[in-house]
Design goal:
Blueprint lengths: L4 E4 L17 E6 L16 E4 L4 E5 L6 E5 L8 E2 L12 E5 L4 E5 L7 E5 L6 E2 L13 E4 L4 E7 L5 E7 L6 E5 L8 E6 L4 E5 L11 E4 L6 E2 L12 E5 L4 E5 L6 E5 L6 E5 L8 E6 L4 E6 L4 E6 L7 E2 L2 E6 L1
Antiparallel strand pairs: 1-27, 2-27, 3-4, 3-26, 4-5, 6-7, 7-8, 8-9, 10-11, 11-12, 12-13, 14-15, 15-16, 16-17, 18-19, 19-20, 20-21, 22-23, 23-24, 24-25
Length: about 325
Amino acid sequence: MKYSVILSLLLFIFPAWFEQYTKDKLIVFASLSYYGSDFDNDKRCDFSVWDNNTSTLYYQLSSNQQFYKRKFFETRIPYEPVFADYDGDRKTDQAFFHRDSGQWIINYSSKPDIQEKFFLGSLGDIPIPTDINGRGVQDPTIWRPNNSTWLLTAVEKDGSKSKKVILEGSYQDAAFSADFDGDKKSDLIVWRPDDGFWHIVKSSADFDFSESEHIKHGEERDIIVPNDYNNDGKCDLVFWRPDDQTWYFRYTGPNESSQIKFGYKNDIPLSCDVDGDSVPELITWSRAKRSWNVLNFRKQESSSYKWEVPESSIPTVSILQSYE
């Protein structure tokens, strides 16, 4: 099958993907839910969506249940949210990436009057925050599908910057970073939809590809939603299958698996800790209904919240890759 990459964050372009599947079209989804979206540092997820048509963020703080609307850009130039904690104050920073030019714009929560702008990446690159030295702070990172390369920049304790270039992956992989081995440092992970394999280059092995893990879990058309679902400090390999609306778990520590049916076929799946118990809930966003659906699978309790936002709004913790 011949693929040409059309790469976009789900945050701003969202066709009716499930209805557009053909034998020559593949859509790969990677969730940034692992970083969460806690704007007020109460250790609970703050729901947020991004409307690319108006460059507007809609979000609700869990601490006071207040709803906020913030417009970031006057231009129609598409910027993609890449929210994470870049300054170490345990609050999610509202950061953006322009994939045509590689420009990053970071609004630090600890310095509300300062906006940092810099260039890292180029056309076709995917922005993925990483913490490769275990500081508890995410650093801007690029994964380049064109040559399957990670471009890492880490800030050391003395303020100096170190750079790494790591080869991993294939042109059509879905890439993300998370702590898979429990050393508090980000591991570099890609999921390959053609064969369903997760390829994990571990920080504990100094990112030596020869010592990486290769685990089969999932198949083409699945949507990956990795996170630490059992609160053991290790990211679990999880995907959601739109055909049967089922979440398939493969826990990293005990090497156990389970399944949970939740959501509807055209939903967008993600995960986040809503109640502050350090275990993420299963969440789907219904674009048609503009509603959040939440399942606390430990308590087997579900809830739904409808928002009055534009229909084009998309959750701010997701990456979409589309190949034709």
